[in-house]
Design goal:
- The complex is a heterodimer.
- Chain A is mostly helical.
- The C terminus of chain A is likely disordered.
- Chain A is 78% helix and 0% strand.
- The longest helix of chain A is centred in the C-terminal third of the chain and has 36 residues.
- In chain A, helix 1 packs antiparallel against helix 2 and helix 2 packs antiparallel against helix 3.
- By secondary structure, chain B is mainly α.
- Chain B is globular.
- Chain B has one domain.
- Classes of the chains: A mainly alpha, B mainly alpha.
- At the A-B interface, helix 2 and helix 3 of A face helix 3, helix 4, helix 5 and helix 6 of B.
């Protein structure tokens, strides 16, 4: 076993086990931490697949941004509202049916896709890790593709994010004005 | 990959870790000495000559203290939080170039890696605040996360302006691109923004609201004692050292020796590497001093001032700086 393989199985196990914690933990903060580890494990798998930029962006956006906002939301609502949020199991039968159905669907898709025969994976397999030249940075190539052939999609994504940002700012502003009104009456 | 090919890297890792821990410990000592000097006091001078063994005494004291966790604390997270803080701090040394070709991992996305790893720091603080089950700790933790997230954006934009100038995300190439002129002279506004956000990211005065002692006792580490508290303490000072190292790398030519092109080519290889390491740690040490100097000179901001500075002034300024740097890059 080389280091690459050991690292692969370590990150894979981390991803799966942490995902189990996310699903089974009754404590929302623990589930959030599990999500953090899952996303971290996926970042590790990206790094092993020589997708260095994707790995770092995964950590930067998901681990450093989204999960912390999730935890933030849980912390602000859980203790201050004075009542624990409901984390029990409901609708067992329907849930089990949907989960099993989705699982079977995914397994069927994975096996019918024949990933091993896809041209870019078959090519990748032929590279010998010991003798192959080091893989160059993916950053330059990604950048060229984003402002070249995929410029429109890039701009559309930017537009969607801007709209979301304006929407969030609008919602926050309205609630603040409502909150300000009673204070004025007191003074 | 064979074990033999990893050995030099492991040796370098051991040396870098030793240097980092020693520097963090002695930053505590120098903070106490310099603060005493600024406030016209004497400071610790009893343990060893000039009190130089004080860090050793402090660590031993912390190790022998009783480790207390609040009864209502979340045990697992209470234990995990200081570990996350130290790990996030230590992991940064992986991509810092100490000298030419003397770097643990010269990865293509070096500077992004630093940003990603420092963004993990917020977990240690937030979780410690929540797991302690104490209102002071919780408020400190929440304040800190809001502060770190707000200032990360301006910091990222300042870093981006440096990346535009050096046309690379690799830390070693960012340093080499400063061979003619340091980035602080080419991009002074970016340096200023980065310096301010670095103070905010390390929770140092004038941005130490997460542990404002008059309001929050000690903020997120109120309920920590013994070596768990020690780990937060070490992480804070490591962050000061590492921020100084990153400032050096990005804006002050990293390991490059000032006026080195005049005499460096005549020297043997070992002397060149030695001088470069000295240059790197010398510059880093200077910025550690700046961190301490500012802490004992400037009073704390109010919370609304902190947020206004971050969002209303620094963020647009960072965007403007990025546009200016990009324009300059296109025109010249």
């Amino acid at each position: 076993m080389d280091y690459y393989r050991i690292a692969f199985y370590l990150f894979g196990a981390l991803t799966v086990l942490a995902a189990v914690v996310v699903v089974w933990s009754r404590n929302l903060i623990h589930a959030g931490m599990g999500l953090l580890l899952t996303l971290f494990g996926v970042a590790g798998l990206y790094a092993l697949a020589a997708a260095d930029f994707l790995a770092v962006v995964q950590i930067l956006v998901y681990v450093g941004g989204i999960v912390i906002l999730l935890l933030f939301g849980i912390m602000l609502t859980q203790r201050i509202a004075g009542r624990a949020p409901r984390t029990g199991v409901v609708n067992r039968t329907v849930g089990a049916l949907i989960a099993t159905g989705l699982f079977v669907l995914f397994v069927m898709v994975i096996f019918s896709a024949r990933f091993a025969e896809l041209p870019w994976i078959a090519q990748g397999r032929m590279i010998d890790r010991e003798s192959a030249p080091p893989v160059g940075s993916t950053v330059e190539r990604l950048g060229q593709l984003l402002v070249g052939p995929y410029l429109l999609l890039f701009e559309v994504a930017a537009l969607v994010l801007t709209v979301a940002l304006i929407g969030a700012a609008y919602l926050a502003r309205r609630s603040r004005q409502e909150g300000a009104r009673p204070r004025r009456m007191i003074s | 990959m064979a074990f033999e090919s990893l050995q030099p890297k492991l040796l370098l890792l051991a040396a870098a870790l030793l240097a980092l821990f020693t520097m963090a410990a002695y930053t505590v000592y120098f903070e106490r000495r310099i603060s005493a000097w600024i406030q016209n006091r004497i400071g610790p001078n009893r343990v060893g000559p000039f009190g130089l063994l004080q860090p050793l005494a402090d660590v031993l004291k912390l190790l022998f203290k009783e480790d207390i966790a609040p009864a209502a604390a979340d045990r697992l997270l209470h234990r995990l939080a200081p570990m996350i803080s130290v790990t996030a701090a230590v992991a940064t040394i992986g991509v810092l170039p100490f000298a030419h070709n003397l770097i643990l991992a010269d990865v293509n996305i070096g500077i992004l890696y630093i940003l990603a790893i420092t963004s993990l720091n917020v977990y240690g603080i937030t979780l410690s605040g929540w797991a302690s089950n104490s209102k002071y700790a919780l408020l400190g933790g929440l304040r800190s996360s809001a502060q770190l997230i707000s200032y990360e954006i301006a910091m990222g934009l300042a870093v981006l302006s440096v990346v535009v100038q050096s046309e690379s995300l690799m830390t070693s190439q960012i340093v080499e691109a400063q061979a003619e002129i340091w980035n602080v002279l080419r991009n002074p506004l970016g340096f200023l923004i980065f310096l301010i956000t670095a103070f905010a990211e390390t929770n140092r005065l004038p941005f130490d609201l997460p542990e404002a002692e008059q309001e929050l006792v000690a903020g997120y580490h109120t309920e920590y004692s013994s070596m768990k508290f020690g780990m937060f303490y070490v992480a804070e000072y490591m962050n000061v050292v590492l921020s100084s190292a990153v400032i050096t790398t990005l804006f002050f030519g990293g390991y490059l020796v000032p006026f080195g092109h005049l005499f460096m080519s005549d020297l043997p290889a070992w002397a060149r590497t030695g001088l470069e390491v000295l240059s790197f740690f010398g510059k880093t040490g200077f910025f550690v001093f700046v961190f301490i100097w500012v802490r004992w000179t400037i009073p704390r901001f109010k919370y609304n001032q902190l947020m206004r500075l971050g969002w209303v002034y620094l963020f647009p300024l960072a965007v403007l700086n990025l546009v200016l740097v990009a324009l300059a890059r296109m025109l010249f």
